[in-house]
Structures are given as structure tokens and as C-alpha cells.
Specification:
Oligomer: single chain
Strand order of the largest sheet: 1-2
Strand content: 5-15%
Shape: globular
Distance between the termini: 70 Å
Largest sheet: 2 strands, parallel
Radius of gyration: 26 Å
Helix content: 55-70%
Order of helices and strands: EHHEHHEEHHHHHHHHEEHHHHHHEEHH
Number of helices: 20
Number of strands: 8
Length: 420
């Protein structure tokens, strides 16, 4: 305590604490109070035992919830989290709902705990736990409109953390932090790159992805990417699930509102009607990650969601001078159409449709000259404009669709936009 750094071991000998607990009175104007409060005390949050036990507790909870979600209804699951305390000799009891407490603690853990090598695994478990809790949709043919779990997330104690949770999940996706090396883990790691629960949650998330894409089968997986950055991948999946929850009867989905209204950190304009769940994030970092991660279905879905729902992101993307960094990965998806499912291809086409609705974009892509497109193998393209390549790939995709897959696409819309 005092002006110098302190540790818990030093507290018993600290002169300011001795004076505070002594018998002499201290005036409110004495410098003592400033000296007493001028300390730097690091709380023992890096306790390996604490993190280890918390991680294992989350692991057990996730495994149990995974079984419950597939075997019992949501109402029955909530009963398992209902605690009734009865005092001896007292016939009245107080009932406590521990489920909302669990959701609140998981969200608080994700947004409050810094991402370090030591905390990577417990943050991954917390994100995975929320995905597992939201997996009830997989066992229902109809859309869940009045889910008790959704109600807890969209109201009550969890509601004020909406924007912070969305922002944290986005930053996890942006950072693409690799899983820490084995030497930095506080417990032994599985050799297969993720262990039981990560595989379990990946299956749950893949199933949720199937629901979001109306039953489509995913593209060929990229296990190396998912295993190298599991927290980024799980955070993206959780973000997509949260933003696609149905609106409750009394209020719209706050997570969708947060995704719709967040702004650039460099945007100093004041919104006339600020949304309570809005926040600011670095658009340059977000744009870079979106460009680099388009090989996965979920990253393409995130890009589509942001372009379609968030006007701030759409305006920023259309104003970029390096548009080829975003368009080329989308065109590569379409070029390898035989390796992608119809929903991934359709989303890529819709993204191009959104972009080509802007006249400035249509003009600028013809001014960008590309050289040596290595993934285009049908012929050697030593030099071609981005606009010409876009037309070439889209026509090839439409031809492939008409002759082989015959999946209905909105061809008139594409035709109108692609005639520059």
C-alpha cells in the first residue's frame, strides 16, 4: 500500500495499514489518505490452479448440457438449474434460478478476462459452452420463437453486456490468435488438436450452420485453420448464432441490433438516434480479417451479414481503394464452385450483387489491373482488369450452375448489375 507497488505478502508489514487500524484518529484532510490509496496491487488472477479448476468445471458443465439438450426439453433443463434452499425447521423455501447466473457468468468471463496464453483455454470453453446452450434449435424442425434460453440472453442481467459480448467476439475473430504452444498450457493437451469438447462444439456449431443455411451441407472443411485458431472460429460461430436468434415478442434481438449499428472507431459523427447496443470497432482490422478468412463458410456469412445489415460497414467497404483484396477471395470461391456447397456459392454471388449495386464500385473495379491470377487455371491471364475477371468468373459460375447443379439463382438481378 502507499505510493510503491505492493504484494499480498507485504500487507502485514505495511505502515499505512497499521496506521489505519491503529487507535490514533486521522483527519479527513491529512495527506495520509492519498498515500494510502496510491498503491498498485495485482490481484492473483493468474493462479494456475484457479484457471485449471474453472476450465475443468466448464468442461463438465458443457458435457452435461450437451446430453440434456439432446434428451430433455428446455423447461426440463432449466429445472436442473433451479436451486431450492430450505433452512432446518423452516417449511418455507427460497427458489433461486441458477441458469441465468450461469449465462451471466459465461458472458462476463468472455468480456472481462483478457486473452492471454494462460487464459486461452478457459475463454474457449466459455464460448463453447454458450454454443452448446444454444443448440436446442438443432432438435426442433420449427424455428424457436419463445425459447427460455433466448429470453434470458435478451433480457435481465445479460442485456447490458450485449454490445461488449459482440465486440469481444468480433475482436477474437479479427485477432485470429493461435492456440498457445503446449508448454504454455496448465494442463495436458490432446494431440488431435482440440480435444473432446472442441470437437463436440464444432459438431453443434456445424449443425447450427446447417440450420442457418436451410439445411445445406457445408463446404469442404479447413481443419488446419480451425485447429490453429479455435477461439476465433468458435467466436465467429457464436456471433452468427446470436445475431440470428429470432426476435422475442416484446423486444427485437439485441445482438442483431448490435451487429447492425456498430461504427468505426475513426467515425466521430454523432448518430441522431443512437442504439443502446451500438459500439465502435476498428474497421480497418475487421476488413483485413474478412479479406483473409473468406475460405470458410462462416466468414462469408459474416461478410454478407455486415454488408446487408450494417450500412456503416457497407459504406466503408465501398470506399476502400484496395477492393481487390476482398473481391478476389470471393471470385476464387466462385471459381472453385465444385468444391463449395450451393449456399456458400449463393452467398458469394449475393455479396457481389450488393457491391455491384454501387456505381462507384462498378467504375473502380475496371481501373484495377491484375496480373498472374494463379488460381485461374483454364487459361493464362497475364493481365486483366478486376471487372473483367469478375464478369468472367460469374459467367463461368452461371454456366456451371445451369449445366450441372441446376440450382436456381436470381439471374436477372445479376444480369442487370454486371452490365457495366
Amino acid at each position: 500500500m502507499g505510493a510503491n507497488s505492493s504484494t499480498i505478502k507485504e500487507l502485514s508489514e505495511n505502515e499505512y495499514l497499521k496506521k489505519l487500524s491503529g487507535t490514533d484518529s486521522i483527519s479527513e484532510n491529512e495527506p495520509f489518505w492519498n498515500q494510502l490509496l496510491s498503491f498498485t496491487l495485482s490481484t492473483p488472477t493468474n493462479s494456475q490452479l484457479f484457471i485449471w479448476q474453472a476450465h475443468n468445471a466448464l468442461f463438465i458443465i458443457c458435457c452435461l448440457i450437451k446430453v440434456f439438450t439432446s434428451q430433455v426439453s428446455e423447461e426440463e433443463l432449466l429445472l436442473h438449474f433451479t436451486y431450492r434452499a430450505t433452512d432446518p425447521g423452516n417449511y418455507e423455501s427460497d427458489t433461486e434460478d441458477l441458469f441465468e447466473e450461469l449465462l451471466f457468468c459465461l458472458i462476463q468471463l468472455i468480456v472481462e478476462i483478457p486473452l492471454l496464453d494462460l487464459t486461452y483455454s478457459i475463454l474457449l470453453e466459455a464460448v463453447t459452452a454458450l454454443i452448446v446452450l444454444l443448440s436446442y434449435q438443432l432438435f426442433h424442425k420449427d424455428i424457436l420463437h419463445e425459447s427460455p434460453i433466448h429470453k434470458h440472453l435478451m433480457n435481465g442481467r445479460c442485456l447490458p453486456y450485449t454490445s461488449r459480448l459482440v465486440k469481444t467476439l468480433l475482436y477474437n475473430f479479427i485477432r485470429q490468435e493461435k492456440s498457445p504452444p503446449p508448454g504454455s498450457h496448465i494442463f495436458p493437451q490432446q494431440q488431435d488438436g482440440g480435444g473432446l469438447l472442441y470437437g463436440l462444439a464444432s459438431g453443434v456449431a456445424s449443425g447450427i450452420w446447417t440450420v442457418l443455411t436451410l439445411g445445406g451441407v457445408g463446404s469442404k472443411p479447413t481443419p488446419q485453420q480451425e485447429q490453429s485458431s479455435p477461439l476465433a472460429n468458435q467466436s465467429l460461430l457464436l456471433l452468427l448464432v446470436l445475431s440470428n436468434l429470432t426476435d422475442s415478442p416484446d423486444c427485437p434481438n439485441p445482438f442483431r441490433q448490435s451487429v447492425t449499428f456498430f461504427k468505426n472507431t475513426q467515425d466521430s459523427s454523432v448518430s441522431p438516434t443512437p442504439n443502446p447496443h451500438s459500439f465502435q470497432i476498428n474497421f480497418n482490422s475487421l476488413y483485413t480479417s474478412l479479406c483473409e478468412q473468406q475460405k470458410s463458410d462462416q466468414a462469408t456469412l459474416l461478410l454478407y451479414t455486415l454488408l446487408h445489415q450494417n450500412s456503416n460497414v457497407r459504406t466503408y467497404v465501398l470506399a476502400r481503394s484496395d477492393m481487390e483484396n476482398l473481391v478476389l477471395p470471393i471470385l476464387e470461391i466462385l471459381y472453385h464452385v465444385e468444391e463449395r456447397n450451393s449456399h456458400h456459392v449463393y452467398m458469394a454471388l449475393i455479396i457481389l450483387l450488393i457491391l455491384t449495386e454501387d456505381d462507384g464500385f462498378n467504375r473502380s473495379i475496371h481501373e484495377v489491373i491484375l496480373k498472374n491470377i494463379t488460381w485461374y487455371t483454364e487459361r493464362v491471364l497475364t493481365e486483366i482488369s478486376l471487372g473483367s475477371l469478375l464478369i468472367l468468373v460469374v459467367i463461368r459460375t452461371i454456366q456451371f450452375n445451369m449445366t450441372r447443379t441446376r440450382v436456381r439463382l436470381s439471374l436477372p438481378n445479376f444480369g442487370r448489375n454486371f452490365v457495366f
